Amino acid sequence: MAMAFHFHPLATTRVHLSPIPFAAAAGAPSPSPSSSVAIAAHNHHHHGRRRFNAIVATAAAPSAAATTEFDFKAYMGERAVAVNRALDAAIPAGEPPAALHDAMRYALLAGGKRVRPALCLAACAVVGGPEAWAMPAAAAVEMVHTMSLVHDDLPCMDDDDLRRGKPTCHVVYGEPIAVLAGDALLSLSFHHMASVGSYPPDVDPEKHPARVVRAIGELARCIGSEGLVAGQVVDLEMTGTSEPVPLERLEYIHLHKTAALLEASVVIGAIIGGGTDEQIERLRKYARSIGLLFQVVDDILDVTKSSEELGKTAGKDLASDKTTYLKLLGLDKSREFAEKLLSDAIEQLDCFDKEKAAPLLHLANYIAHRQN
């Protein structure tokens, strides 16, 4: 079933997850020249960043005041350790075919912030479920995310040779093994979520099976032809095109390519945790806002940070004439859009217990403020 998403004021329209609203986009105005983006980024970076931080702090102040004791750095560190342990245990080490398992482990255990698993665990907890119930789902979304990175980096896609500060999977293991490693990670993600042995013994024996089935369906929808894959296809079609790319189509790309997996991470955590339909839908709206926020910030960082700071190739979108928020809106308007998205995400958390919602609040702020 297609889900509607209402645009924020700067977007001035609406988008659906499926089908692509290309017809409505045909008469949109031309984007500004990409050559102006880099200049604007350098000229306005420091002023814009101060303004961005000030507005973000103001938007977050009411919720943050109730969670001043929350140690976000420790929270993320502890969850990353637990998720990495689960991921390490999920993939055989040294078993045949060794090249495949080595490539899977290389890509999956190469580092990363583990934002998606943390969102999954936090969503489970905010609706009252034990985090341990959501750990298999958290590991699964990280497997899917890593698959998407391995495939996205391939020469036939974005053609990148640096990821998480290391050579990409196809550079180390070759393109055929990289493709197959991504395929295997995708398959493993669903196997891991569906396996009874992945879950602790204290899950509700009556409700848990139905929750797992619903969560698997949600993950499959968000990463298939109505989600992540759809966004990648349209992104490829639009890269380097001489046709003006309207904002509506850019929103479609990033709602699917980036936001959909963040949405799945949050929603399946809430499903596994036993959230009500109303709670799940509020968290879905939260996730879509932070999903778009993630991409807007990514576009800003691409032209304001170095490759060493990012751990991946900087300035690549500009060099490949890729349509980004900066290209269509400029740096200042992109920052304003990010501010609005953060404010909208925080608003969706108002109905939850402040202490339980603290991780989701801080994750939203982290996505807005991140430097890589």
How would you describe what is shown here?
The protein has helices at 22-25, 35-65, 72-90, 98-108, 115-126, 131-152, 169-173, 175-194, 208-223, 228-238, 247-272, 277-304, 307-310, 316-319, 325-329, 331-347, 354-369, and strands at residues 4-6, 14-16, 162-163, 166-167. With 372 residues, it is mostly helical. The longest helix has 31 residues, at 35-65. It is globular, with a radius of gyration of 20 Å. It has 17 helices and 4 strands. Strand 1 and strand 2 form a beta hairpin. A two-stranded antiparallel ribbon has the order 1-2. The protein has a two-stranded antiparallel sheet with strand order 3-4. It has a single domain (83-369), classed as Farnesyl Diphosphate Synthase (Orthogonal Bundle), CATH 1.10.600. 67% of the residues lie in helices and 3% in strands.
Please tag this protein with its features:
372 residues, mainly alpha, Farnesyl Diphosphate Synthase, two-stranded antiparallel sheet, globular, Geranylgeranyl diphosphate synthase
Concise structural overview:
One of its GO terms (cellular component) is cytoplasm. With 372 residues, this protein is an all-alpha fold.
CATH class: Mainly Alpha
Shape: globular
Largest sheet: 2 strands, antiparallel
CATH architectural arrangement: Orthogonal Bundle
Ends apart, CA distance between termini: 34 Å
The tally of domains stands at 1
Helix content: 55-70%
> How many alpha or pi helices?
17
Low-confidence stretches: 1-67
CATH superfamily caption: Farnesyl Diphosphate Synthase
Structural class of the helices, strands and pairings?
Answer: mainly alpha
Measured by DSSP, the beta-strand proportion falls in under 5%
Beta-strand segment tally: 4
